Structures are given as structure tokens and as C-alpha cells.
Amino acid sequence: MLIRLLRRYLRPYARPLLAVTLFQFVATMATLYLPRLNADIIDRGIARGDTGLIVRLGGWMLLVSAIQLGCSIAAVRYAARTATGFGRDLRAAVFGHVTRFSAREVARFGAPSLITRNTNDVQQVQMLVLVAGTMLVTAPIMSIGGLVMALREDVGLSWLMVVSLPVVAVAISLITRRLVPLFRLQQTRIDTVNRVLREQIAGIRVVRAFVREPYETARFGTANAELTGTALRAGRLLASIFPLVMLVLNASSVAVLWFGAQRVEAGHLQVGALTAFLAYLTQALAAVMMATLTLMMVPRAAACAERITEVLDTRSSVVPPAEAVPPREPVTRPPLRGEVELRGVEFRYPGAAAPVLHDVTFRATAGTTTAVVGSTGAGKTTLLSLVPRLIDVTAGTVLVDGVDVRDLDPDTLWSRIGLVPQRPYLFTGTVASNLRHGRPDATDEDLWSALETAQARDFVAAMPDGLAAEIAQGGTNLSGGQRQRLAIARALVRRPAVYLFDDSFSALDLGTDARLRAALKPVTRDAAVLVVAQRVSTIVDADQIVVLEGGLVVGVGRHAELLDTCPTYAEIVASQRTEAATA
């Protein structure tokens, strides 16, 4: 997975990677040349008292060092630019892919996991690219070059390198094999911590209302302890690598000095050559340490790449016509009559024993209001989600303006629909930026008109900055009713052909509800309006009421008609009248 991900998203950076390789190669060769110059200064300059030679060779060492420094800086610069560009592209790819997911795929991964995969996971792979770019070329050249140069200095001591390098390589490989599953588990633990933390922050009012702080603290403590335990196990293995390498390095250095001194005493080796041999041994083992640093990051990056690839390889259950199997020509300009029709619609969640909706058939024409009512769990929100293709039917057909929504170009479909979800969500920004979310070119007059219709003009005008008033993430600085009315105004600004209101009046008092419904009539007179509602008073004047029970349509008609012909509807009305009388 890691190789596949790197190959795909590093392809545009072939030239910077080539530059990194060239600069690293030159810098490494310069580094390997310095011990040889130092040996010549000792053996040919200091030993013979040749000051001129010492000065000339010292000058060469300064020049080679300058080249080595310049190339190293250039290599790091190109590697950093490549890594940051790679991370940017990968995050954009994951984000773009996730935005095409249907509700089914989002629920499968979970929002906390998707956030972790697009932030922490991408960062881990990006860091691997940076470290590999600066060390991956250097390490093999340095280790092989150090071995070759050491052999040139003295073959008699080469057995020390033949022993030390494989010992380090084998030990590191054994540790790395144990790290891979630990890092994979660690990323899963991070998902869990993020999920628990997100739930507790979002539901802080509920937690406090039910005095569940001790329980939630313990739940977070459990998730945190599991993450800490996994991180500690991985950390212990990582911490053992460097001491191991340093042990081999120091033992090898002592052995070189011990056996080298004997060869110098016997006249088989000069002091400068012994110094160069020791330097090359150190460089070779340092290269192994650099490779170790890269290898330390590989297991975690591999686990992260696997999680990222899982997201990128997940195909949305809602696909554009051109990407369907077999592909179809998308319809981009349907007639704008504002008509919705469901024919024998069924929807079943994956693995569910029974469908949520079964054989649902009705039609909502332009200029009419169709209400959908039913008990909790009857499938009302699921039904409404089928129209904009937030999810796709598992059987039957949903048509907008006579065209199957699966044949419509997604942008064309969504541009004709104004959706007010059950839980109105506002984005960080201003009132104006939220209202222009679906129509960026809307004027201030359009925004105020929509606010007037949505019964939101008064409280927006009362804000210090009016349309420029700041909105916190999720609209948490507003009441539930204010958020709901701004969400309705956002849909009105778009002027769509189809309005979908998913229980969008539940947070409004009866007076505001009545005024809002009266103001909506002239605005939506040319559009098809579908309303999911719990309060019968909200939909009593609807042109058509669809009654759902257990995913089945058990009644279709107007209010008065259904009271006589549909027991389920009559029971809903009676229960609400009883509650009102009791209150």
C-alpha cells in the first residue's frame, strides 16, 4: 500500500526528486573523499614535515567540505518542498474523495476516523517522504562507499565491517517486523480517542445534565490508557534501536583501534590509513543509523498508508452516471418543472434483515406541498435523503422532473434542490457567508428577503454586525430556533425547483411556525415542497400527506380525508391533541 501510494502521488515530483538524488550523491561522495584527504595529510604531510602539502590538501578539504555543505542544503530544500507538496496533494485527494461519499460510507468509517486519516495519517507518510528524501540516497551510497574505501585502506581489517554491518541490519529488521502491527494498532487507538473526545465535546450539555462526568472521564481515561500503552510498547522497541547501533559502532571502533594498532606496529598499515579506516567504518555505521531512522518511520507510515488507501479505494455507493457500470451519459439540463416522483422505492441498509422503506410510491408536483408523517423510525428522513441522492435506492426509482436521479449529473441535481436537514448545521464564518453557501452571487437584498421569509430578519438585524455577524462552528452561538431559521433562509436564497424540509420547524414556537408557513407559500408557489414533520399543525394545510408506518405507505391524501381513511394518521392526530390538552 505504501509503495503504491508513493508511486501515485510522487509522480508529479519526478524532477525535484531527481535533483534531491543528484545533490545527495555529490554530497555523499564529498563526505567519502574527506577521510582520504585527511589520511594523506597525516601520512604524506605531517609524517614527512611537508608544510606545503599540508596547506594544499587542507585547502582541498575546505573546498570539498563547502561542496558537501552546499549540496546537502540544496537536497534538504528540494526534499522539503517535495514532501510538503506531496502532503498537500494527498490531503486534497482524500478530502475530495470523502466529499463524494454517501451517508453510508461516512457512517462506515466514522467522522473521527476520516479526520485522523486526512491529518495524522497523511502527516506520517509526509514525514517519511521528507526523511527518505534526505537520507535514502545517502545511506546506501555511504555504507557501500565506506566499505569500498575502507577496503582500499586496508583489506586486513575489512572483516570487522563484514561482521558489524550484518549484525546491525538483522537486529533492526527483527525490531521493525514487530513495530508494524503496533503502529497499525496505535492509529486505531488514535481514532478511538478522537471519537470519544468528539462525542464528549459535542454532547457536553447532555453529559452535565445527566451528571455523567465521572463515567465520561473514565471512558476517556480507558481510551487514553489504551493509546498510551500501545505507544509505550512501540516506543520501547524504537528506543532499543539506537543503543544497539551505538553498541556495535563503539565495539567496532575499539576493535579497529586494537587490531589496527597491531598492524601499524608490524608495518603493514600507516597511521593515516588507520585513521581513514576508522572514519569509513564510522561513516558506514552512521549510514546504517540513517537508514534506521528511515526504517523507524516505515512501519507507522505503512500502517497509515494502508488506512489512507482504504479510504481512496472505497467507491461511493452514489456514483455519477459517467462512472456507473455500465457508464451512462449524464443528463445535464432537465426540464425545470419542479416535480418529484417515487416509484416502488425500496431502501435497505447493508446487512439489514428488512428494508427501511418498501414499495413507496407517490408524486409531488410543482406548486404543491407534500408532507411525510409517521412514527419514529418509519423511514421519513431516509425517504427524503433519496431525492438528492445522499443515499441511493436499493430498488425502485426516484425521478426529478421525470428523470431518474441516477441519470442526472450530480451538480445539476443538487443545483435544483434546497435541503434543510433535520439537524441544521452552520459553518464558521458570517451570516452572509452561510446564506450564500448554495448561491455565492446572491445580493444582500436577496439575503434579507430570504431572512424575512424565514422569520429570521429581526434577530439578524439586532446583531451588532447584521449580515457580517460571526457564526461559530456549527452555529453554537445561536439558539436551536435561530439555527433552524437560518438554515431555511439558506435554502430560500438558492431559489430551487424542489424544497426538502426534514422536520425543519420543530424548534419553532407555534406562532413563528404559522408565520413562516404563511410566508413560504408565495415564495415556493412554483416549486415542489416536501416536508417531513412531527407536528400535525405544521402540515395540516398540505396538498398531500403521505403516511408511513414501518417503511410502508399506509395512506395518501389530505388532512380531512386521512382522518377518516387512515387509522395510523388518525392515531397520530389524536395523540397530539391529547398531549396539547394535557399541557
From TrEMBL:
<feature type="domain" description="ABC transporter">
    <location>
        <begin position="340"/>
        <end position="575"/>
    </location>
</feature>
<dbReference type="Pfam" id="PF00664">
    <property type="entry name" value="ABC_membrane"/>
</dbReference>
<keyword id="KW-0067">ATP-binding</keyword>
<feature type="transmembrane region" description="Helical">
    <location>
        <begin position="54"/>
        <end position="80"/>
    </location>
</feature>
<dbReference type="GO" id="GO:0005524">
    <property type="term" value="F:ATP binding"/>
</dbReference>
<protein>
    <submittedName>
        <fullName>ABC transporter ATP-binding protein</fullName>
    </submittedName>
</protein>
<feature type="domain" description="ABC transmembrane type-1">
    <location>
        <begin position="18"/>
        <end position="300"/>
    </location>
</feature>
<dbReference type="Pfam" id="PF00005">
    <property type="entry name" value="ABC_tran"/>
</dbReference>
<keyword id="KW-1133">Transmembrane helix</keyword>
<feature type="transmembrane region" description="Helical">
    <location>
        <begin position="12"/>
        <end position="34"/>
    </location>
</feature>
<feature type="transmembrane region" description="Helical">
    <location>
        <begin position="273"/>
        <end position="298"/>
    </location>
</feature>
<dbReference type="InterPro" id="IPR011527">
    <property type="entry name" value="ABC1_TM_dom"/>
</dbReference>
<keyword id="KW-0472">Membrane</keyword>
<dbReference type="InterPro" id="IPR039421">
    <property type="entry name" value="Type_1_exporter"/>
</dbReference>
<keyword id="KW-0812">Transmembrane</keyword>
<feature type="transmembrane region" description="Helical">
    <location>
        <begin position="157"/>
        <end position="176"/>
    </location>
</feature>
<dbReference type="InterPro" id="IPR003593">
    <property type="entry name" value="AAA+_ATPase"/>
</dbReference>
<feature type="transmembrane region" description="Helical">
    <location>
        <begin position="237"/>
        <end position="261"/>
    </location>
</feature>
<keyword id="KW-0547">Nucleotide-binding</keyword>
<dbReference type="InterPro" id="IPR036640">
    <property type="entry name" value="ABC1_TM_sf"/>
</dbReference>
<dbReference type="InterPro" id="IPR027417">
    <property type="entry name" value="P-loop_NTPase"/>
</dbReference>
<feature type="transmembrane region" description="Helical">
    <location>
        <begin position="127"/>
        <end position="151"/>
    </location>
</feature>
<dbReference type="InterPro" id="IPR017871">
    <property type="entry name" value="ABC_transporter-like_CS"/>
</dbReference>
<dbReference type="InterPro" id="IPR003439">
    <property type="entry name" value="ABC_transporter-like_ATP-bd"/>
</dbReference>
